[in-house]
Specification:
Elements: H1 8-22, H2 26-34, H3 38-50, H4 55-58
Helix pairs in contact: 1-2
Length: 63
């Protein structure tokens, strides 16, 4: 059975990435996403897939 837990740190990094993206700061968004540990990233992808989407679909083109 796969553990689908997202750490608090990863949740904060995802929030920071989404905020940076919204503000047009691509470098900060990428840096925040790259800081997410692999297990949490897998859990994030799993939850998004359960909702029928991907992270890219959550990111509107704000530029």
């Amino acid at each position: 059975m796969t553990d689908h837990r997202i750490t608090l740190m990863a949740a904060g990094e995802l929030r920071d990435a989404l905020t940076a993206h919204r503000n047009g700061d691509t470098a900060a968004a990428v840096a925040a996403l790259m800081s997410i540990d692999p297990q949490s990233w897998a859990a994030i992808e799993h939850r998004l897939a359960a909702l029928g989407g991907t992270l890219a679909e959550l990111l509107p083109d704000t530029h």
